[in-house]
């Protein structure tokens, strides 16, 4: 089968990936620099019998996506900074009610309205801690157009498999950059669909049946009349005030992630085998890091890159291992220090950890990173 | 022996409900079930969506596809359900605070789209669940725990708000006027497009106590004496209408329904 070669923006690749993964529903509210995702979804979805709706705000955008998902649709919403803040309450809802949904945040600069057209990576911690209460989170970050395509598919697959919201955390750099990408044939792509109950079987909407990772999920309208709530609930899905029950539910939700780190965590390593120094970077900024490492290697400095692709759950084990082998870790990100805190936490003093970042809407240049690196040296 | 309606439409094992003695919400919930029964809807194809509040606990007791969402957002979730599967009969249950304060934006936009959702507002003029704070429908000068000196806000007329925003069916009734409520419920659910029934409820526990309205029976008597059908009112002399609130069907018109319009686009693109 001949591959389709396209010259796409990251945001366009996101929609192409979503459609490949089986997206049939999109609801959202326009915001730079994510808007192309809405525009392309609006154009493409009705062509395949899917649905697009521009809602009145971002809260409604994610709410409608969750509602659609409950009918069996694969649903996505995309946004940026201010809109991501508005979506937080319902991200927690989807986590507790275990409704698959994909939330794309094309990060832009600054707090508040900030720098709408400039890149930033200031929402890393918000992706993890933005909604209130303890909750499981899966968050993926691409560093290229092709990877945006791949990770959008993966985001849908993980949402379906783990019955949880999955955040695709891109940034203005990867969202608006154009690259050549080969779109694989549908037959080459692995698509995961949620497990549904069989007609006639006993069905408790929030019971994990033997051999399953999560409760089976019936489509609304398919004959299983069940209840969905954002209150703590028992196996039947009905609200329960029992603290014992709440503990069981919370443990199960957290364990979905914690017991499956090997399935969830992916990362890229560049030149780490003999590295004496390590740069940790992700998303668009990892491209800067890759360029910097090339230059530094040419100068004979043994430096490597560790790039988390799954940022939540954080690749703790991998970073901890590397920290035993290198003298220093420099974390490069477009913020005043977010991932660096995670790195410090897991490195536990094994090596020196520094941060290189800014949040003025500019990208980090390889020269800046090299300068920061040499200060460490 | 259980009532046949209860057996057929409620999750008996989830009863008794959480509502206070004398609360008006149960009367409205039962009316919704009777309308579904009367219309002969397939239970598997009915979806009831609510937000957060005393009223929003109703779906948990009802034997359909039920979705208890976040405060104010029921209409937004319901929009996703309906658009993704227009075959479902989607009914939204919301308190006055849920629907017209935190969820006000979703109300006007769902109405504007004329999407095929039926919204039943359980309007008790107060925030019941959180203990009696004033809501957007608390009458001016009445009291709430957060309006200890009397409310200086002007209240919303939710029915008129929905009409102004583009709803194609709108009616108001009360927890006392049950035969009327049953008819309006049925018409609203059968209606194609966005329909709203504002059902005046009573909250003896907070609204009643705070405003010295007497017992639940006294509050019911107030509904009985103060609300009249607007068609009846038309024929009455002005002195008989004074101080009365109008109820009944205020709007019933046909306009293109949102999900059908979307399906037309899909069909068009297939050609
Ligand atoms: C985002 C958010 N804000 C506030 C609350 C607290 N809260 C729960 S119910 C409610 C008001 C309920 O009043 P209403 O909608 O009129 O319904 P009622 O309880 O009177 O039936 C409030 C303020 C909440 N759950 N979520
Ligand atoms: S607090 Fe008021 S609205 Fe809530 S259940 Fe009691 S009487 Fe009903």
Output the keywords.
heterodimer; A: 377 residues; alpha/beta; Rossmann fold; 2 domains; 8-stranded mixed sheet; B: 271 residues; two-stranded antiparallel sheet; 13 helices; 18% strand; binds thiamine diphosphate; binds iron/sulfur cluster
Characterise the protein shown here.
- The complex is a heterodimer of chains A (about 375) and B (about 270).
- Chain A folds into 2 domains: about 180 residues, Thiamin diphosphate (ThDP)-binding fold, Pyr/PP domains (Rossmann fold); about 110 residues, Rossmann fold (3-Layer(aba) Sandwich).
- Chain A is built from 13 helices and 16 strands.
- In chain A, strands 2, 3, 4, 5, 6, 7, 8 and 14 form an 8-stranded mixed β-sheet that branches.
- In chain A, helix 1 packs across helix 2 and helix 10 packs across helix 13.
- Chain B has a single domain, classed as Rossmann fold, CATH 3.40.50.
- Helix content of chain B is about 40%, strand content about 20%.
- In chain B, helix 3 links the parallel strand 1 and strand 2.
- The longest helix of chain B is centred in the first third of the chain and has 15 residues.
- Chains A and B meet through helix 3, helix 4 and strand 10 of A and strand 2, helix 4, helix 6 and helix 13 of B.
- Strand 10 of chain A pairs parallel with strand 2 of chain B.
- Bound molecules: thiamine diphosphate and iron/sulfur cluster.
- Thiamine diphosphate (TPP) binds next to helix 5 and strand 5 of chain B.
